[in-house]
What we know:
The chain is of the alpha/beta class.
Amino acid sequence: MAELQPIETALEALLADVAPLEAEQVTLEHAPGRVLAEDVLATLDVPPFDNSAMDGYALRAVEAGKRLPVSQRIAAGSPAVPLEAGTCARIFTGGEIPPGADCVVIQERVTLEGDTVLLPDDIPKGDNIRLMGRDVRRGERLLAAGQRLEAAALGHLAGQGITQVRVRRRPRVALLSTGDEIIEPGAPLKPGQLYNSNRPMLKRLLENFGADVVCVISVPDDAEQTRALLEQAASAADVVVSTGGVSVGEEDHVKAALDALGQLDMWKLAIRPGKPLALGRLPRSDGRQARFVGLPGNPVSGFVGAWLFLRPLMGALLGCPALAALPALSATADFATSTGPRQHYMRVALAFTAQGITASAFADQNSAVLSSCIEADALAVIPPNHGVEKGDRVDCLWLAG
């Protein structure tokens, strides 16, 4: 019997020789969620000019405490002219600081008397002014290669007037479901059949990890058809993901097909859930190889396996360091458990309080109980042959896309 392998060995085998995919250019409109293929340098200072952080009056700080006439009005988007000596300028948030002014006093601190304002005595130089280049300086790196383009990063690009960026091509993934007993929702269930819960779950997770699921295939319990459909999937994808068929039953044909067609790198892991997990490679007609990840058929095993293996694989193909590993945190266990020879990944909910982080485990941790994943915030990692009592510290992997 093959020795169970630790997760570290499996990840090493999975990611060996994986290089980022080629780059492509997309418009900013189609860039959300994509990963930058190269650094982006700033071509503009941000902000591009000194501007007011508040509605108020721009003046020279040395004239604080005086009564000054208002010589100009500066709204956001309007040009300013040099400030006349002995005057102040009415200014609004975002308005350009007029040359000669070096501070802004908020409107609530002045007293209006006709066309003049009485200024308070204590107005420090630079007060309420956002200096040119405070956020970004022209020529500096705006965003680094490998950055995933989410809301703030997209705003940063738009603030430079950028309309197109070079990003990594999305990994193409073929998603296979094996087993005659698995049918798609909408069809009537016959005795012994189950609806396919893995397909929509894994498709959503893969898309969140940056993949493009290019085809979904149902694989019957037939050795010849399994081989043919694996070949078909490999021809269309960078990564082939299957669910089920990787155990040792007489109708589990995926492992044998992988052995026959390509290369089996790893099988059977010392983890729970997800022991029967196959990792390997399939040849493609273009001479390249498609990575293969064979997840167990139980839905919780597929859910956990996706976070532990598919996420870092997508990160490597996208050149995205943020996807390489799940964020780790330490929490206080609100449960007790013990493990055998396999490392357990328990579904837990996290509570953040003034006293710290508490992890509460779902009562039924069976690999077929998908409801334990719906409200799960993290996976509590319980080492092999280890006991946990309520109040102990446990390491958790935060399920952050």
